[in-house]
Design goal:
Length: about 230
Amino acid sequence: MEIINPDGRDYHMHSLNYSDGLNTIDELVHWAGVFGLQEIAITDHSQATLDKCNFAKKGFRGTVQTERRWQNVHDNGVNVIFGVEGDLLNEQGDICDHIQGKKGDFLILSLHKEIYSGDFTKVTEAYCQAIERFGQQINVLGHPYVLDSYQQYLDIEAVTRKANEHNIPLELNGVYLLKGKVDFAQLDRMLALADRIYVNSDAHTLHELKNAREAGFAYLRERGYL
Ligand SMILES: [Zn+2]
Ligand SMILES: [Zn+2]
């Protein structure tokens, strides 16, 4: 198993500008530099989540392409990618991959229980269909082993194999480890089979930006992967 970002790169975090992070993009970039990161992807939740969770409408993204005008003024060399944490919507494998109609440069595909409106007994099919249909655009499958009742229906080995076939890495997500919201049997099955993984924070706070990835590496050490 290859770890794509064992160094100072973190490809999953949320901002105040576009979704439910506590910090602005500029705060994230400043503190990323302080915490020794060289590259980050700001991956706010897709429009499906923004609508469903009633997040207040904040920064414009679709119309003026704000992030094309944004530049890193912090003089810390942190490279910033503007992505999206997309949502898996149903067992047909439909996804929501945009914010205000605008796609990002890095797409995480995640299932969030509140947003998925399909049949939970068919979550394996949902992932596999989405990979078949949108595999070219998906950069990583986000946290597929979250502790929840639908895990009993998720054949994570089938999903991991399908991701491998399409050259899509899987994610070891730091925040869910910090929160203890992990189906560890499923995570271990995923790690045993995955060709490539990202270790990302999924930070919604500066504390998580600083510490969550380390929880991922600690788990990998514990399981003998490092
Ligand atoms: Zn997520
Ligand atoms: Zn997230």
